[in-house]
Each structure stands twice: as C-alpha cells, then as structure tokens.
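[09:14] KT: can someone run the structure on this one? pasting the chain below
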Amino acid sequence: MVDHVQTASRTAFAQGYLLEKRDTDAFSRYYTPNPVSADRVWQVSPLRATELHLLPPTLLVTAGFDPLRDEGQAYARALRGAGVTVLERCEVTLVHGFLHMTAAVPAAARAMRDMATEWRALITSA
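[09:31] RB: done, structure tokens below
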C-alpha cells in the first residue's frame, strides 16, 4: 500500500490525465524502500523539508489538470511562509509533463516561453 497525501487534485485527476495514480504509486515504490512513508520524507516530497528558509528564490509552476497540483501549490505557500521569494503560476489548461509537449501543444510552448521570461526576471532580481 502506498500512503499518498489525499488532495483534491490527486482525487480528481487520478486517471485519464497522463500522470495517473498507478504511476505515482509506482514512483513511490521505486524511490523509497518503504513506500508507506514516501510522502513523509523530504527527498520525495520537498514540502516535508524542515529548512525551507535556506532555499533560493523559486519559480514554481503547476498544471491545472495535474494530480500533484495541490501539493505544488502547498509547497509554494510553505516556501513563502519560510521567507523565500516565490513566483508561482498555474497553467490551468495543461497536464503534468506539459514541458515535453511544446512541439505539439501551443499552450505548452507559450507556457515554456513565459516560464523562461519569469525565470530570467527572478534570477536577475535576486
């Protein structure tokens, strides 16, 4: 059994949106020797890190149809709470892994360009 944090996005997008529950379960088994604790260790779930204040300015991008969306947004909130500068965006029309779709999906290509622009602004202002 894999013990994932149950979020609205994990439930809503568990099947049919490219990254499926069976995939996240498999990744948990591959990445940790004890899959039951996979979401509780910072190496798998950076939201669990205790020293977030040491992290650099962050560009955090989620996808609207991604089972991991809510966890990504929670991570952004935690970083902000720790005093980290965070630029956050949600590509509401896209799925997990959209960066690999830039040649075929115009919205993914636009998102990649926007991310590059935001990343440049973030690192030049730091």
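[09:33] KT: thanks! The radius of gyration is 15 Å.
[09:34] RB: yep, looked fine to me
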